[in-house]
Amino acid sequence: MAITIRILPRNKINSLAWDACIANSHQRILYGYSWYLDIVLPAPFWKWVGAVIANETGQYQTVMPIPLRRKVVAGITCAWVVHQPFFCQFLGVFSRQETLDPMPFFRVMQQRFRYGSTVSMRQQPDTSLSFDTVRAATTHTLALSVGYDTIYQNYTHDRKQNLRRARREMSTAVNWTIVESTDPEPLLTLFRENHADNIDGGVTDWAYAVVRNLVIELSKRNLITLRYACCDGRIEAGTLFVQEGNRIIYLFNAGSEIGRRRNARTLLIDQMIREQAGHNDADEPLVFDFESPEKLAIREFYQSFGTSEEPFWEMRWNRLNPVENVLRRLLSAVRSGSKIF
Questions:
Q1: HSE-up of 251 (CA within 13 Å, CB side)?
Q2: SS in 3 state form for 257-319?
Q3: What is the pTM of this model?
Q4: Is there a contact between 48 and 39 (Cβ–Cβ < 8 Å)?
Q5: What is the CA radius of gyration of the chain?
């Protein structure tokens, strides 16, 4: 009997059934939950739909979220295109079944949406699918089951040295402290003052609003650890960790020049690793995910903790007609000097 994959708009998705499928899937990860997608894909320029296989009782067996972004030129809506949102490194097909063929889901996505600006998936597409580009990417992870002593031994010499310096300063300086918080505003201020100018196109207010809304929702669900490193009463670095299931994600961070020179983020990351190392469910070994970006210097910093690379795949495709492609190029030209929205 043929299995039917349905594409459901957000208002037709049963959130309880969807989230139960994510939680009981073999691919479980924070990014797939309906409430998380609702936050990182805010209206009016973003939305998501779901590809769903359900059984006869309505229980979702396999699902795939498809993130969409609205393309607009001169105030005219052109199309909804598949586009990866911020704070969502990759998605994929989530299934209760042990064996999974994600290709029918990828095929349905391509058939329904003729343009994929970029989408990152945990599963690798095969050559039978007509993606214009498939690029391997990686995030950096640490297996925490081996315990802290073993993890620490795999830190590079420079990382160990910088950590010792940070610990020494923390233990001898009465004006250097670490505090826990649920307030994201200092973290956002640090990012705005020290990092935003290095982002191509800049960062607009809605992106900061996404972080605020994430912190609120994650705090309600007891999934968040937000810590600040302070010197002389001034916050110089902050780190936002999220633990859901067997994965701790280093979701967001920022630091001042003082925080960087004093290795504050090294100290904050190491503290979280040290606290969680060795805590495992027998069926789900705990993993620390640095959520690595493309920037080489940051990747090298994460590699210095002795990480391994975990792959995912970025896909693009274009089946637009000539007129639509002209509009798409016009949009790119219009937006080339504008901020991210």
A1: 29
A2: HHHHHCCHHHHHHHHHHHHHCCCCECCECCEEECCCCCCHHHHHHHHCCCCEEEEEEEEEEEC
A3: 0.91
A4: no
A5: 21
List average pLDDT for each run of 10 residues in the chain, which is 341 residues long.
86 98 97 98 96 96 97 61 96 94 95 92 90 95 95 97 89 79 96 88 87 97 97 93 96 95 95 91 84 92 97 92 64 50 31
- Which among 311, 271, 273 is positioned nearest to 121, based on CA atoms? 311
Sign of CA dihedral 253, 258, 263, 267: negative
CB 79 within 8 A of CB 73: no
Paired tokens of 167: 């610990």
Quick count: other Cβ atoms within 10 Å of Cβ 232?
11
131 φ, ψ to 5°?
-75, 140
CATH of domain 140-306: 3.40.630.30
CA 74 centroid distance within chain: 31
- If residue 180 lies in a helix (H) or strand (E), which one and from where to where? strand 176-181
In whole angstroms, what is the distance from residue 136 CA to residue 119 CA? 12
Q: Which residues pair with 6 in a beta bridge?
A: 52
| Tokens 């982002």 found at | 199
CATH superfamily of 6-131+313-335: Gcn5-related N-acetyltransferase (GNAT) (3.40.630.30)
